[in-house]
Fold this protein.
Amino acid sequence: MQRYAWAVVLGLGLVAAGTGIAVGQGNNPAPPVELRQNYPNPFNPATTIPFILGGELFANGHEPRVSLRIYNVLAQLIAVPILQGTGEPLDQLVLTCSNPSGCAFSAYWDGNVQNTRQQAASGIYIYQLTVDGRRFTKKMIVMK
């Protein structure tokens, strides 16, 4: 019984850590940043990474600085995806939004290792969105 209870507690911890939303009483407001799962996942050779920035990040004319980086399991930088629609690398990019409830964005990674034409090897990769210094992380799988 103890073993089962531990698995339940561990499971809740993983769910809470994976979503970035605190577990507690209901009626929590939507987080100002929502990093979503890439698609397709697993993928070969390219993937899209959606994320949402809430309207409060843009309050009073603030323009958040946003970066998105992809790392291998050894924490080595593999790539910096581009922002879809602009083609600019998501590296300290200043984003704007005119919608008071927030805006949805998408990044694109062609599966290539940064500064090479070499495709990333099959395996698990970590992608990390940084918005004004706050980090949000998820994992994805390259499968050849």
Notes: The CA atoms of residues 82 and 89 lie 4 Å apart.
